[in-house]
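Service request form, structural biology core

Requester: graduate student, group of Dr. S.
Request type: structure prediction, single chain
Budget code: on file
Notes: please return the result as structure tokens.

Sequence provided:
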Amino acid sequence: MSLTLLAEYFSKYGMVAIFIIVLLEYANLPGFPAGIILPFAGIMASNGKVPFMIALLVTVIAGLIGSWILYFLGLKGGAVFLKAYTKKFPKQEEKINYYVDWIRSKGSTGVFVAKLLPMVRTIISIPAGVVQMNFMKYTISSTLGILVWNLVFVGAGYIFGDVALTIFS
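Core staff response, request fulfilled:
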């Protein structure tokens, strides 16, 4: 799928489509990575379709809701799921235990930092739920990390606007 086609799709369905796709991405479901989707929110803002702060806010809320989904999955059934997963994929057990121990030791700071790291930023919510991290601390650190990450990508879309579409199409 080309960037031009994606741009047409987002022009047609607007921030609702971006909200849904960002939510699914933060819930670690297959789709387009944030590095592709978030700049489109910025491009929409640069084209005057939505104010920049609204575009950023929508993506942060979507990211937080997606993160909450994984947090609560980790909280309610994560330990059982991880046990079954590592039984099926034993080579992953060491990495999973590392992230669970890392969240236990780093807490809110660990969640914030993890939200800034590609690939780790979505899955870190599960270990946070498994270790029963305080929900308010988790929410605050997640929100701050998501805000920084999304600001970079939405901001890039806003700054570079349609130039990026022309270059990469």
